[in-house]
Specification:
By secondary structure, the chain is α+β, with helices and mostly antiparallel strands. It folds into 2 domains: 145 residues, 2-Layer Sandwich (Beta-Lactamase); 100 residues, GAF domain (Beta-Lactamase), CATH 3.30.450. 59% of the residues lie in helices and 18% in strands.
């Protein structure tokens, strides 16, 4: 577990999921603020409509001096939603009338507005303005419940979006990056254990595909180098079984054409070309054949690209094997260290 948490997968997932969570949280906060503002505006608008209607009823009935109709109308209105209570206050804010519904509410919004004096009001109230106040209590529970309900819906939608995004991102990362990195890691483990034939199946042309192709190319080159060195090590035994120098030269040229990336190869011995195959075109390399401590000829190859250090070393070993085989065949003591 500790190793997993320190891995690239865990770090990448933490960064991506943290970013998605942050963006989703900001989105939810903005949606909640807009929702809260919208419900507040609805509550304010409905409150003003009801207040205006009550004020108009109160103004008309009181202007006509029908106090009993005012009392009856306000009591009926106080018993209907969303009005919770109605009070008529004097100039000193003392209640002169109160009507309250029998509903129980958790939250009540109170609005107080002045009752302005009209000409018809002066015969009873004189010239004072305002002549009193109208106080209305509104049941705010429905708006609170609406806020909770719609907030829950918004939260649920955002949670589902967050979960969907995380699953989608994880699946994409798993298929697009993590599984391919695991294949690359597996290939390197096999390669490190000596399985030089292991290759990665490559699809696409993205960065990981190019890394996998580079690994496959490296693996092929290393396998080719090891295979060539293995064959070069066998060449000495093969040449020592030859019955003539012509057979040695023929086997050597055939070996070079099979295990070296060359256009052509030939062997010059005692100033004569004794074996040749392919075309001598491109870059040429040669290694001497030494017999009796003197250069008796050389092996020459031509290639379309520069030889690597490993190829040059392998060609030098081939030339040395030819030298030893000729001296053994001719009964000449090989040079020290040969």
């Amino acid at each position: 577990m500790r190793r997993y948490l320190k891995g690239l997968r865990a770090k990448l997932l933490v960064v991506l999921f943290g970013g998605i969570l942050l963006i989703t949280s900001i989105s939810f906060y903005v949606q909640f603020a807009i929702l809260k503002r919208s419900i507040y505006e609805d509550e304010k608008r409905n409150t003003m409509v009801i207040t205006s209607a009550l004020y108009a009823i109160l103004e008309q009935t009181m202007a006509k001096g029908r106090v009993d109709e005012v009392t009856r109308a306000l009591q009926e209105i106080a018993g209907t939603p969303p009005v919770r209570s109605i009070q008529i206050l004097g100039r000193d804010m003392d209640p002169t009338f109160e009507a309250r519904g029998d509903r129980v509410t958790e939250r009540e919004t109170v609005l107080t507005i002045p009752i302005r004096s009209r000409t018809v009001c002066k015969r009873c109230h004189g010239g004072v303005d305002p002549i009193g106040y109208l106080r209305i209590g509104f049941d705010s529970t429905i708006y609170r419940e609406r806020l909770y309900r719609e907030t829950g819906i918004t939260l649920g939608i955002n949670f589902l979006m967050l979960l969907s995004l995380m699953i989608m991102v994880y699946v994409c990362l798993q298929k697009g990056i993590f599984s391919r990195l695991q294949k690359l890691n597996t290939a390197m483990q096999y390669f490190g254990r000596g399985n030089l034939r292991y290759r990665i199946a490559v699809k696409g042309d993205d960065e990981l595909s190019r890394v996998a192709r580079a690994f496959n190319e490296m693996a092929r080159n290393i396998y080719k180098i090891n295979f060539r060195l293995y064959k070069v090590s066998e060449l000495s035994l093969l040449l020592n079984r030859s019955n003539s120098t012509d057979e040695i030269f023929r086997k050597t040229v055939d070996f070079i054409m099979r295990f070296f990336d060359v256009n052509g190869a030939d062997i010059v011995y005692r100033d004569s070309t004794v074996a040749s195959e392919g075309k001598m075109e491109g870059i040429e390399y040669s290694e001497p054949i030494v017999v009796e401590h003197a250069e008796a000829g050389f092996i020459r190859v031509s290639t379309s690209k520069d030889f690597t250090v490993e190829e040059l070393s392998a060609l030098r070993i081939v030339a040395n094997s030819v030298s030893i085989a000729i001296q053994t065949l001719e009964g000449v003591r090989p040079p020290p260290g040969g």
